[in-house]
Amino acid sequence: MRDETLTDKITEQAKFDDLKPARWVDDYADNLYNFALKRVNDETLAQDLVQDTFLSALEKAHHYRAESSERTWLTAILKNKIVDTYRNRNNILNGNSHIGSVEDEPEFFDPDLNNWKKEHWPAPFTVDNEDALHNKEFMNVLRKCMTKLPSLWMAVFKLKHLDDEETGFICKKLRLTSANYWVIIHRAKVNLRSCLQKNWM
Amino acid sequence: MKKELKTEEERIAYNCRKATLLIEKKQEIELTAREKVELQLHLAGCYICRVYEQQSVLINAMMRQILKPQQDEVKLDDAFKEQLKEKITAKMNKH
Fold it and tell me: Which residues contact A108 (CB under 8 A, 6 or more apart)?
């Protein structure tokens, strides 16, 4: 028994020694900063997140297992911190359970019949689907439309499209019920589509 | 006068709100058999929701491209890096 504990200790020490915190900034800081910046779109916040990542990694160094590379391990810590940011932002802005809304969001569907209101009927965009992705102006219209979405909705889309996370994971991390998740996806898409039509044609 | 929807078929035919929700779900998860039939029935008679479906798929592809930018890597500020190194060293020495 004693020997085993000793071996465990030695292995743990060895794993710990695999970490080279003195080199972290030179080796990973730029990379982690870019990772964070794409997800939070705020330079100061991204810097803070990188710093928090390194400092809490030092505290958790004894949990480090050599199965993952130092880079993967640090990125995982950063990722968790980014999700916390998404969640906190939302809680501060909206209390706890509101899913938010777009400013001046119209009622797109008839409240009784549930069909599209005539003034909101989707019309074909005057751009081919294959061309759309290469059409800078068209992409820019969508980009602008996206800035109008509440931060929680954007957090959902970033986890979905940027990190390719699954629905269940997103709900758990952002503390959303599955029903609310679909409400967000649906309303976001209906709004984006309408905004795109209005500002493109 | 308010129109009343009497039959199940009519309710499905009119319910663009539900059809568009199913269109969103379909792109991520497998719909139930009943939902599949409902959506199919609805889309068969609703040109507007067929346009919506096409555009919804397109917007997903566009969003993916916007959110995954191939932008040039940005460098962290050197002064910030130096400070960060000092903080890390200080913390290591404490332990």
Answer: A116, A117, A120, A190, A194
Interface of B with A in 2-61 (CB under 8 A): 2-3, 5, 14-18, 20-21, 24-25, 28-29, 48-49, 51-52, 54-56, 58-61
CATH of domain A97-199: 1.10.10.10
Q: Does domain A2-89 have CATH number 1.10.8?
A: no
SS3 of residue A157 by DSSP = helix
DSSP letter (8 states) at residue A201: -
Distance from C-alpha of B84 to C-alpha of A44, rounded to nearest angstrom = 14
B66 in Cβ contact with A139 (< 8 Å): yes
Q: Nearest residue on chain A to B28, judged by CA atoms? A: A167
Q: What is the ipTM of this complex?
A: 0.85
List chain A domain ranges: 2-89, 97-199
Residue A74 CB burial class (10 angstroms; 0-12, 13-18, ≥19): buried
Residue A78, SS3 per DSSP: helix
> In this structure, which amino acid lies at residue A23?
R
Mean pLDDT by 10 residues, chain A (201 residues): 55 65 92 93 94 93 81 94 87 62 90 94 87 92 95 94 93 92 96 95 76
pTM, two decimal places? 0.84
For B14-46, the pLDDT digits (tens) are: 899 999 999 999 999 999 999 999 999 999 999
